[in-house]
Automatic annotation (TrEMBL), chain B:
<dbReference type="GO" id="GO:0030663">
    <property type="term" value="C:COPI-coated vesicle membrane"/>
</dbReference>
<protein>
    <recommendedName>
        <fullName>ER lumen protein-retaining receptor</fullName>
    </recommendedName>
</protein>
<dbReference type="GO" id="GO:0000139">
    <property type="term" value="C:Golgi membrane"/>
</dbReference>
<keyword id="KW-0472">Membrane</keyword>
<dbReference type="GO" id="GO:0046923">
    <property type="term" value="F:ER retention sequence binding"/>
</dbReference>
<feature type="transmembrane region" description="Helical">
    <location>
        <begin position="6"/>
        <end position="24"/>
    </location>
</feature>
<dbReference type="Pfam" id="PF00810">
    <property type="entry name" value="ER_lumen_recept"/>
</dbReference>
<keyword id="KW-0813">Transport</keyword>
<feature type="transmembrane region" description="Helical">
    <location>
        <begin position="151"/>
        <end position="172"/>
    </location>
</feature>
<keyword id="KW-0653">Protein transport</keyword>
<dbReference type="GO" id="GO:0015031">
    <property type="term" value="P:protein transport"/>
</dbReference>
<keyword id="KW-1133">Transmembrane helix</keyword>
<dbReference type="GO" id="GO:0006621">
    <property type="term" value="P:protein retention in ER lumen"/>
</dbReference>
<dbReference type="GO" id="GO:0005789">
    <property type="term" value="C:endoplasmic reticulum membrane"/>
</dbReference>
<feature type="transmembrane region" description="Helical">
    <location>
        <begin position="119"/>
        <end position="139"/>
    </location>
</feature>
<dbReference type="InterPro" id="IPR000133">
    <property type="entry name" value="ER_ret_rcpt"/>
</dbReference>
<keyword id="KW-0812">Transmembrane</keyword>
Length: 10, 212
């Protein structure tokens, strides 16, 4: 399950 | 940042501005679902809380602030300034049928069980279905003003372009966010029926009206 540290999209 | 992502953001911005200008210039929000607009404003507010926690770029922060302000301004115009023109009798979609399941799902399926991440997930799920009250309203009245259909077109185009952006990012950056992709797919599919009517009717100069 991919965990993204932060969301860089709008 | 690739061209599809940029075009998606611009398309999203165009949609929001078209709606604001339509309401402002005609001094009327007839045919616009206030419920969808409240949902979109909630989407932006719950998603962009990271404005206070991380800085990604000037572009990122400014767009977030513009989206939030415009969506709140739209809600204000519909429910306060031009409330007399708001077509509440036709805006009868039961929003709790969207918000409750979406809220539950964001607790169950998320990247990380933290308040910020759950709110982000909630906003992603909610955005995918937030247009339903508007589409329901159009199906009820059987027609939409041409300018409203342009708004819907750019709003649908935005998530479609993001889908291409995600394919791009997967190949070139190894970036892969399953939650955003699945929700984005659902969101885009919901517009397909509308896209068909837009191309076959509105682009040929006809008003969008549904058969009785």
């Amino acid at each position: 399950w991919p965990f993204t540290q932060y969301h860089d999209e709008l | 940042m690739n061209i599809f992502r940029l075009a998606g953001d611009v398309s999203h911005l165009v949609a929001i501005i078209i709606l604001l200008l339509k309401i402002w210039k005609t001094r009327s929000c007839a045919g616009i679902s206030g419920k969808s607009q409240i949902l979109f404003a909630s989407v932006f507010v719950t998603r962009y809380l990271d404005l206070f926690t991380i800085f990604i770029s000037l572009y990122n922060s400014s767009m977030k602030i513009i989206y939030i302000s415009c969506s709140i301004a739209t809600v204000y115009l519909v429910y306060f300034k031009f409330k007399a023109t708001y077509d509440g009798n036709h805006d009868t979609f039961r929003v709790e049928f969207l918000v409750v399941p979406v809220g539950g799902l964001s607790f169950l399926v998320n990247h990380d069980f933290s308040p910020m991440e759950i709110l982000w997930t909630f906003s992603i799920y909610l955005e995918s279905v937030a247009i339903l009250p508007q589409l329901f309203m159009i199906s009820k009245t059987g027609e939409a003003e041409t300018i409203t259909t342009h708004y819907l077109f750019f709003l649908g185009l935005y998530r479609g372009l993001y889908l291409i952006n995600w394919i791009w990012r997967y190949y070139f950056e190894g970036f892969f966010d399953l939650i955003a992709i699945v929700a984005g797919l659902v969101q885009t599919v919901l517009y397909c029926d509308f896209f068909y009517l837009y191309v076959t009717k509105v682009l040929k100069g006809k008003k969008l009206s549904l058969p009785a």
